[in-house]
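User: Sequence recovery, please. Input:
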């Protein structure tokens, strides 16, 4: 989806002096606002605070024209309304209208939560305040009831010392990201962090598909593809949760933005604890399955950075980093652990001829694909796929020319545990090091299909027509035996 055309400057609607903030009705408790002169990002009592109403009447921007929280007051068109203030209002309304056109609920207003107009009107309030270098914007809740919340936006008043390319870029990033948090609160106040931040990052992408902020955070996910989608790192902040925005951009590109609308609708009904269940239902509503789409997602992730260009992937694939390879060798005898909704990539340098793979332990639920690709060049479509089944699974993946091949191993399902296994990739002699024997011609020792019978994928990262797979109880993956 393309970003809306840049807005024209409005002709001075709604300038006024804010002299008082209306109180909440006695029956509804609410958090303090910056104009209450208390809290982490409050105005000072010496600030002279004015407001400006956006051209569509959706937002009201509050800003200081004099005092310690004074904003940037430059006005090139001479209308005495700061250009920065007008840009915040116009961009925020563009974002809100795009979200609404996509099918999302808009952030709830005070009137919908039993509050008086806290900023002097029922428009969504923006406050330009001093974050002091600690953060730069936030959707702040006023009050919550029945699992939903209303609130306001606080945004840095001048971005002095911040690393944005320019003020407009900062405004675009913060309004699209933080306002999507406001959209989330219109559905539920119970989202897990990875889903909350991941979909908010996608909100940035929806508004600006070329967003450098979005692209930079995507790399954080690609640096750890072996981590389950719903299991961000514990402890210190790493940004991985923000990186999951890549997954939601994939769903947008592969299935459409209505997937995220359906996801929030499901979460409103089921609650945040049913995050993956809601995700599966939302994907199925678009005609796919969690397993099918996951295999396509992790295949696209292989074709990024220097590996982009030879098979289907993101339109911005070349701007992303490459996924790490856990092993690189001529013949591989090793052990691995693949978590649910996570992926491991290894590279094998093959001398030519039959390429075998054997797995000692039960690896039921694992999907394997083989992609040609040199270290610094594009990766090509899969030349072999495999669904191993049971203990001691062995297969001849393909009879291949000499060269470099990347083996993708993923568990494309919701499950309670990882799949841990010893495995071998290489020649028949390599299999023997695992205590396994190469299969005889036409023998079935692996329990899987030469073509991916488990997910309906065509080996290219796309979905084969008429080959959709249904999830059974969301805890197992259907597969066929030959």
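Assistant: Recovered sequence (482 residues):
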């Amino acid at each position: 989806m393309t970003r809306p055309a840049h807005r024209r400057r409005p002709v001075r609607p709604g300038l006024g002096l804010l002299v008082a903030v209306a109180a909440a009705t006695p029956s509804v408790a609410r958090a303090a606002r910056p104009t209450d002169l208390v809290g982490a990002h409050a105005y000072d009592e010496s600030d002279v605070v004015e407001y400006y109403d956006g051209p569509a009447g959706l937002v009201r921007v509050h800003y200081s024209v004099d005092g310690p929280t004074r904003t940037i007051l430059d006005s090139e068109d001479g209308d005495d309304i700061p250009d920065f203030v007008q840009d915040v209002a116009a961009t925020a309304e563009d974002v809100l209208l795009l979200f609404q056109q996509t099918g999302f609920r808009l952030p709830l207003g005070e009137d919908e939560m039993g509050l008086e107009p806290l900023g002097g009107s029922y428009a969504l309030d923006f406050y330009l305040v001093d974050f002091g270098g600690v953060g730069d914007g936030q959707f702040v809740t006023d009050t919550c009831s029945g699992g939903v919340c209303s609130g306001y936006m606080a945004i840095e008043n001048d971005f002095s010392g911040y690393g944005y390319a320019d003020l407009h870029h900062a405004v675009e990033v913060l309004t699209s990201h933080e306002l999507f948090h406001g959209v989330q609160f219109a559905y539920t106040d119970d989202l897990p962090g990875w889903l909350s931040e991941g979909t908010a990052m996608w909100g940035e992408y929806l508004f600006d598909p070329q967003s450098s902020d979005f692209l930079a955070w995507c790399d954080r996910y690609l640096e750890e593809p072996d981590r389950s989608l719903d299991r961000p790192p514990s402890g210190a902040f790493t940004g991985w949760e923000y990186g999951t925005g890549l997954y939601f951009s994939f769903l947008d590109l592969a299935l459409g933005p209505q997937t995220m609308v359906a996801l929030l609708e499901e979460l409103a009904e089921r609650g945040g604890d049913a995050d993956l269940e809601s995700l599966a239902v939302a994907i199925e509503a678009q005609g796919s399955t969690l397993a099918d789409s996951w295999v396509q997602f992790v295949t696209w992730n292989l074709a990024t950075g220097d590996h982009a260009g030879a098979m289907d992937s993101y339109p911005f694939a070349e701007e992303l980093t490459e996924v790490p390879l856990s092993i690189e060798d001529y013949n591989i005898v090793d052990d691995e652990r693949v978590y649910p909704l996570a992926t491991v990539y290894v590279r094998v340098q093959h001398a030519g001829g039959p390429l075998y793979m054997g797995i000692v332990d039960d690896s039921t639920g694992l999907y394997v694909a083989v992609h040609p690709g040199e270290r610094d060049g594009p990766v090509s479509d899969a030349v072999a796929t495999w669904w191993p089944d049971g203990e001691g699974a062995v297969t001849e993946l393909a009879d291949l020319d000499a060269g470099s091949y990347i083996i993708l191993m993923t568990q494309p399902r919701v499950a309670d545990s990882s799949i841990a296994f010893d495995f071998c990739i290489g020649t028949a002699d390599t299999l023997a090091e695992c205590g396994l024997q190469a299969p005889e011609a036409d023998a079935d020792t692996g329990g899987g299909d030469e073509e991916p019978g488990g997910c309906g994928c065509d080996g290219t990262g796309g979905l084969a027509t008429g080959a959709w797979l249904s999830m059974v109880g969301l805890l197992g993956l259907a597969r066929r035996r030959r």
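The first strand starts at residue 16 and ends at 17.
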